């Protein structure tokens, strides 16, 4: 694999003077442009990216679109279970709140949980992976044993157990997902670290007196980052689905509005058998769409970063 | 939904562990090593299971007696009965010895041995997971082959797109929609399948029972297959694409073999290997993933049992199921490790 | 041999598609090895009543069973000394056809009916009653479920074959409400350890109730057959099946398709949806249960030792009453229960009209945020900069509210309360936690506001008793109460009503007790939720509710509903699988076998090729 050459950050950055830095910037710019050109060739990836940006924008603009007071139970604008109408395009829930508002508002929590949980797991995974790849010997053995151990614990079961053990809050959900999802990343990162460290310039850096920290931070990390990025986008999709799953099993925080929580409310109200389909379909669809956009982006990224894969498409 | 490694990480096709394996090492040593490492994992799981659920909040004895008048003596008696009056190290020791004898304690809510409860619920889960896995594997392998063979075509795009979409859908939501659509019926279409359960009570006769169970299985199996087959499809597709680029295929074609023959005789069997391995690796996770499907469809298996136990919380039962779920992952991994060399002559020791 | 399906069956016309799909799946499942052909052809019509159930059985041993589902099944399997009248809940003869009590109320004599037999043909004798009660008095494990009934028992003796005498150490109000299934000694005396015997191995289980338990598949089904020899008359349905569902929606769908005939525990939305459907009758019964929250007035032990960390301001009755006045119970009924509940003031549900308490207009703590604000202003709780009030001692009025996260109606009510209390300058920090955590917080006294709720029995003695000073914990940690309430006047009235045998006077005393509870505002009842049930009227022609009118069907005190349920006209059982089906399955399995063979051959061929 030849990721390092096309990676946005060049590994050869020994110099500290200003002109090389400018050069480095220029090189990064061209690298990005090249990256984007290649990414653009993947149509599904572009669609995914567009969808993703739309959802993020929606989440950011939610306070402008929705009046939080209308999301309170006492300030609900409608009557319970109104079918979709001009006033409530997606109908109302069991308290008479607009489902469109709820779904828009819910994107904030769902995306936040998705991103933060991924951040936790990717950070943890990268850290363990790089350490295990850089330090061979018993450190690696111990770290990989721990990784293997977590890998055999069924993710969902562990996440459920953690969410049940800790108190109910969004933070708990983030931790439960983050702590269970990292081993895959750790394995990938370790493999990549081993590949990077086998390259001659790492030898050179070592010979020039670069310490462990220097090598890991300045050489390995930048080269592993692209891979981590691709992994991240895939994990976000997973995290959002897991969040809704935990909420569905009643392990979420009942006071926050997230897509999973809306589905859970719908189920508890018996919406399916009562024929209140508009309560059930929008949040589930939102989850599926967001997960899909992230997956499409992740695959496109992988394709760009791994030419071997790209050829196949 | 179970959250095994995402299917689209095509890199994960061949589990990395296998690469380190040297073909010349002794078979026995290989098997021994795998067995040992599985045993270590199992031990780790036991430890996790014990301490993880010790910190679950809520006094189990008070939980058991909620809503009733109980005296302090009765509480003490219950604590004695479940060994909760012992110091923690003693409890841990008893627990470890118990698990080795397949005795995982008494369930709080059913007042029956955990192992018995799990034993009774094991087969429905095995039936569900087995059927779903076989169907998902057949579907995934077949569609994956077709997609790879006609790479870039409309079929490929449709297949990949559909698989990815289904993969992105939350399992339980899909299950609920299926109930709403196929069990209740929409408009003039009547409900075709039962919304839950495994069997109509009172059914007798082998054939009638088989038919009845199969009828009840349609919706849960469909849900599981829909969510699981995507990753098999993606893996099959990518490993077949890998194979198609191989030199030996060029040779085979040069020999004058027909295209479809090349595919069927050479590429597919080789591409099957990593996929089949992955199916086994995933099986354990799929077992754990049945929690959602079983809950939605009231399937009387381990998943439902876990969900019920978690609500109480029935500590020994949750703990026992945790071990069973984790152990199934370990056993399946072990199986994949042991079977892989048999399947693939290239790595036979 | 007959082969019956549940009454709930899908009409024939959809049969074929269904069978086709089933056949395909079956072929894949069983690998196509149909050996025994199912017996078809019914000679008689068997009627089956299928009931949706969701709660797992804890044990089928009456000595151990505590869950409603299990005790309800025991009502069907075994006779009790007395029963509760379906119309009024009053005590009526059961296994005992008459009873007498001595002047000092310490000796009770029950005369058993002579036409009661066990399902294995043995007669039911006084010795069975003696054995059952004595075992509970002497064996700790046997006392697990109903030990509280026999703690006052001195001695139980069989005077003759039909007469049982119970001697008490002190008078006991529940002597005609002994919810103890009487067991056959000749079967049960062989049991070695009552703590582990679950009574679920030897079918049919020998009993003397209107139904006989013939099969139990944990979390799948419980099957009972009618007892044709039951002394009150045989039930009208031949078979009763409790079928398990985990998902409320799946249950309702099963009712719609007719796979089950009865569903309880509907949500308001489901009840509304089912109301509009033909062939389905919705029964919104007056609740047996109240939904309430209690306020921590300062936790103490019986000896007055203070513990816990309840908010000090809550010791002030004004704050407690202001909290109650800020809550719109009518809105809870509308919004949380979709109208299927009753806004409540008194402690005992209105279903028990004799004991139910309604406050007078001038003592009512009705919804009035302005009045609540005024009360707090006057008592010196001024609003801080953030709008939250501060007590004269400088404490912010910020309270924790513990809520069972598995009870949607409590969660929803709590979310409403949080918003309402904010209007009167009180901050609520919701603790939506596992029931175990709620109970831990209660027992440790580490809470401010906490949700609770009880199922109230026809005799309210128990729920009243938990608020006596006596029910306070002897040491921090465990108690039978759900509030640290203690009031001398209340205790005095409690003792008085216990000894009072005149129903009207007792009812009056009980109402006075509730007035004290209401005024102190420690135990605050919010609503009496309806019990929402539905059944297929094309399966069940008539069924007894309890009490009548306005009563419920599931989980009655007694066996009335299932015993009285009459099959609807034209209800027949479905025959076994048809010939078409068997042919279909055979074809499918042949296909699968051939396919497998082909694949295997192909595999072998490729392998050879490669070698």
From TrEMBL, chain A:
SUPFAM superfamilies, sorted: MetI-like
Keywords: Membrane, Transmembrane, Transmembrane helix, Transport
Transmembrane portions of the chain: 44-66, 109-134, 146-165, 171-189, 220-241, 276-301
Major subcellular site: membrane
Homology family: Belongs to the binding-protein-dependent transport system permease family.
UniProt cross-references to PROSITE patterns, sorted A to Z: ABC_TM1
Membrane topology: Multi-pass membrane protein
Residues annotated as domain ABC transmembrane type-1: 107-298
Compartment(s) where it occurs, according to its Swiss-Prot or TrEMBL record: Cell membrane; Membrane
Organism in which the protein naturally occurs: Salinactinospora qingdaonensis
PANTHER family, sorted: OPPC IN A BINDING PROTEIN-DEPENDENT TRANSPORT SYSTEM (PTHR43839:SF1)
Top-level taxon in the UniProt lineage: Bacteria
Name of the featured protein: ABC transporter permease
Residues covered by region (Disordered): 1-22
From TrEMBL, chain B:
Region (Disordered): 1-20
UniProt keywords, alphabetically: Cell membrane, Membrane, Transmembrane, Transmembrane helix, Transport
Domain ABC transmembrane type-1: 122-336
Residues passing through the membrane, by range: 35-56, 122-143, 164-187, 207-230, 271-297, 317-343
InterPro entries in the record: BPD_transp_1_N (IPR045621), MetI-like (IPR000515), MetI-like_sf (IPR035906)
Keyword Repeat annotated: no
Bilayer topology term: Multi-pass membrane protein
Record localization: Cell membrane
UniProt record similarity statement: Belongs to the binding-protein-dependent transport system permease family.
Name of the protein in question: ABC transporter permease
Source organism of this protein record: Salinactinospora qingdaonensis
Lineage: Bacteria, Bacillati, Actinomycetota, Actinomycetes, Streptosporangiales
From TrEMBL, chain C:
Signal sequence, renumbered to the chain: 1-37
Keyword terms, alphabetized: Membrane, Signal, Transmembrane, Transmembrane helix, Transport
Subcellular location: Cell envelope
Top-level division of the source organism's lineage: Bacteria
Transmembrane segments: 580-600
Record InterPro entries: Peptide/Ni-bd (IPR030678), SBP_5 (IPR039424), SBP_5_dom (IPR000914), TAT_signal (IPR006311)
Residues covered by the Solute-binding protein family domain: 92-464
Similarity annotation: Belongs to the bacterial solute-binding protein 5 family.
The name this protein goes by in its record: ABC transporter substrate-binding protein
Protein source organism: Salinactinospora qingdaonensis
